[in-house]
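Q: Please design a sequence for this.
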């Protein structure tokens, strides 16, 4: 088995980040039909998608750090911290529809 190559992981993360950035920038915007609820629903979908994508990225990085720690306590803790951040991101992505519905109720009054 080949030893872990940090330069290769960094280049893979850079390519993945560039792909996500291009997807966000080049995506066709969803034009609202003049209704604030449509705009808020569109924003909710974007936020939930971005949070889930970032959480997946953190989970991947944390898992890679944890698996390649080779007994290094600092690397193990960094991996665990990234995995915890991913779990928080997934929780926020799951709660974003509820938070946006609260925002809709506040704006409707």
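A: Design:
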């Amino acid at each position: 088995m080949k030893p872990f190559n940090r330069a290769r992981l960094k280049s893979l993360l850079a390519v993945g980040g560039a792909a996500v950035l291009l997807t966000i920038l080049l995506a066709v915007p969803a034009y609202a039909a003049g209704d604030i609820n449509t705009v808020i629903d569109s924003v909710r979908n974007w936020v939930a998608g971005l949070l889930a994508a970032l959480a997946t990225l953190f989970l991947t990085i944390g898992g890679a750090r944890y698996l390649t720690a080779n007994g290094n306590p600092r690397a193990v803790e960094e991996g665990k911290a990234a995995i915890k951040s991913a779990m928080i991101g997934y929780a926020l992505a799951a709660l974003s529809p509820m938070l946006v519905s609260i925002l809709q109720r506040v704006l409707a009054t």
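Q: Thanks. Anything notable?
A: The CA atoms of residues 16 and 57 lie 9 Å apart. The mean pLDDT is 77.
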